[in-house]
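User: For my dataset I need records formatted as: sequence, then structure tokens, nothing else. Please produce one.
Assistant:
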Amino acid sequence: MNLPNKLTVIRVFLIPIFMIFMSINFQLGSVNFFGATIRWEYLIAAVIFVGASLTDLADGKIARKRHLVTNFGKFMDPLADKMLVLTAFIYLVAVGKAPAWVVAIIACRELLITTLRLLIVEQGGSVMAAQMPGKIKTATQMLAIVFLLLNDPLFSYWQIPFGTIMLYICLIFTVYSAYDYLKQNQKYYSDFQ
């Protein structure tokens, strides 16, 4: 178990801790954070989410730099990312901070692309590295989740919270990156047409 894989495993273990702080009202009160009132539980959950997201950034860079890419990492790293993001989005829907239809589209895209990646590997192909639309989708997902958890303490433009703006930008890139991925890998599923 090398360092990048350990970071991936840590990210997976942070998910239930994130869930605990989103699920249980510990009655810790709230804090005024840059003008926004935030429950302590949500602030702690946001810190856990940011920490888990940073492990995602670190594990890939370390794996590539030190040539520590493993089959476990190739499989578990993207799975851990999806588990973390989808868990956060489900909780944001549950607490009324994100529309269910947006999260449903994001979840369907993730399932579709993950299934396609498995199909490509099964047919002897190699999985494409993330393209720019996918990277923008991921970045806007992370920003949306953090700012929605924090009640947008830093930005509010035209009375639309920054987290909401990021969520809809994420939605656009979710759909576009799925289209782009499907188009570039059409040869792997053309038999089904």
